[in-house]
Amino acid sequence: MAKRRIAIIGLGMAVTPHAKSLLDLKERVDVVWAMSPSEGRRAAFAARFPFPTTGDLEKIVGDPSISAVAVLTPPNSHLEIVEKLTRAGKHVLLEKPLEITTARCEAVAAAGIKAGVKIGVVLQHRFKPAAKRLSEILAANGLGKIVSCSTHIPLWRPQSYYDEPGRGTKARDGGGVLISQAIHTLDLMLSLAGPIDEVCGYVATGAVHRMETEDLVSAAVRYKNGAIGTVEATTAAYPGIGERISFIGTKGTAVLSGYGLIVQRIDGTNEDLVPMIPPGGTGADPMDFPHDLHLAVWRDFLDALDQGREPRVSATEALKVHRLIEALLKAGESNTKVEVASSK
Predict the structure, then answer these.
(1) Rounded to the nearest 10 degrees, what angle do helices 129-139 and 183-193 cross at?
(2) 192, 228 in Cβ contact below 8 A?
(3) CA atoms of 66 and 91, how far apart (whole Å)
(4) pLDDT by residue (tens digit) across 232-253?
(5) In which element (H, E) is residue 101 found?
(6) Cβ neighbours of residue 163 closer than 8 Å, sequence gap 6 or more
(7) Which domains are assigned to the chain?
(8) Distances 155 to 80, 163, 251 between C-alpha atoms, Å
(9) pTM value?
(10) Residue 89 DSSP label
(11) Which helix (H) or strand (E) holds 304?
(12) How far is CA 331 from the centre of its chain?
């Protein structure tokens, strides 16, 4: 099969694991352009990676040989860029989040559907080997009936992180810890535990940070299958402990923590998947992690294009976590129970 010609738009903090993944996939892809309007970012990128750079978005949009584009720009720019690319018939791999509001997220998904192209979303936690194993266990009723699923996301970001212009604002990022950091683990939680019907809880901007949006979230949730649980998320937990998803079932318990998994069953058939790679990215340096999961995202995306199927996390699939985040914020702001909007 001929190599697929692709491009990258956005050469900021998020580009490194993508560029490393594309180097690993050099037998499958040719990177035609790596684009940024910033001359400084183009120069810094070119010093690290052997891909041609440009400051002209229209070179990418107007090149019919480019079939897929990675969009790694700030969240509030996604909709306009995706609409341009999809109108030109190009598939898109989009860094999370989809956009800054649920309405704009829905418009992103609609753009792909209207154009008949694929939009994949970089929610890479789905590709953890431990998550795959837990999914298999749950599908085989290995924990029995699930009565509880709780998610704990105690991360750390120093004030300097939020001092960057636009960081943690509604206008650029769409929110704080939920949409920028916790979205990865919340998406994985939903993929394993199923949809959530209603939430109640609190959101706050604590004393640790000076920022516009939330850095503390504590909520109770009820799943569609009747299970209950909690969601806790923060970027104020020094030095950054790492996320954890805990299941309680009638046959035992399971804890997915970072790259590891511990399963303890009442009948004694336990499992312990010891991670070979440290999780990283939970502390002051958000990019301190290996690129293995991004590589898995890229392989799935390319396979989806070759096979004519949807990527594992499509734009439509990613709407589920955005609707949950919207409900968590509404519940915290109103101090009332909020129903989670169902996918359409």
Answers:
(1) 20
(2) no
(3) 9
(4) 999 999 999 889 999 999 999 9
(5) none
(6) none
(7) 4-125+294-314 (3.40.50.720), 129-283+320-339 (3.30.360.10)
(8) 31, 17, 31
(9) 0.95
(10) T
(11) helix 292-307
(12) 22
Residue type, 270: N
In whole angstroms, give the CA distance from residue 195 to residue 224: 6
Look up residue 219 and give its amino acid. A
Helix axes 15-24, 292-307, angle to 10 degrees: 60
Q: What percent of the chain has pLDDT above 90?
A: 90
Sheet holding 68-71, edge to edge: 53-54, 29-35, 4-9, 68-71, 91-95, 119-122
d(CA 312, CA 124): 10
Residue at token pair 């490194």: 16
Q: Cα angle at 68 between 64 and 69, to 5 degrees?
A: 105
Count of residues making up the chain: 344
Q: At 293, phi and psi to the nearest 5?
A: -75, -35
CA triple 341-297-48, angle to 5 deg: 125
Q: Are 325 and 340 in contact (CB under 8 A)?
A: no
Q: Measure the CA angle with vertex 92, ends 86 and 98; round to 5°.
A: 95
> What's the token pair of residue 233?
């998320």
Q: What is the pLDDT of residues 15-54, one digit of tens each?
A: 999 999 999 999 999 999 999 999 999 999 999 999 999 9
